[in-house]
Amino acid sequence: MSDATNDVLNVGQPGKTYQVNAEKFNAMKAAVLAVLPASEPGMTPAQAIAALKPHLPEALFPGGEKAGWWFKSVQLDLEARGILSRAAKPPVRLWQTSKGK
User: Fold this and answer.
1) How far is the C-alpha of 10 from the C-alpha of 76, rounded, in Å?
2) Tens digit of pLDDT for each residue in 80-100?
3) CB-CB neighbours of 22 under 10 Å
4) Using CB atoms within 10 A of its CB, is residue 7 exposed (0-12), middle (13-18) or buried (19+)?
5) Does residue 27 contact residue 61 with C-beta atoms inside 8 Å?
6) What is the pLDDT of residues 3-32, one digit of tens each?
7) Dist CA 49 CA 51 (whole Å)
8) Domains identified in the chain and CATH numbers
9) Which of 4, 16, 23, 54 is the most buried (most CB within 10 A)?
């Protein structure tokens, strides 16, 4: 695994960035964008995680290990960048915006 990092944003903490492993982040981002729909009502995080696990490289996520944590990291970053939208009311449902297509 590479030591390269990505700066990621968090929609809940505007202006703050975090560094995470670029290889894992980019693999998860590709999987998230492959499975989340382009319109409402979207998917719940649990549905998205179940759907994206087959898209993850086994070498980076053996058996889907830590997929939930990496999903959340990518979700918050993509929300902060306007690539994902979240439903205004519970339950949490996510979908891609026009920027994500």
Assistant:
1) 5
2) 999 999 999 999 999 999 886
3) 16
4) exposed
5) yes
6) 899 999 999 999 899 999 999 999 999 999
7) 5
8) 5-100 (1.10.10)
9) 23
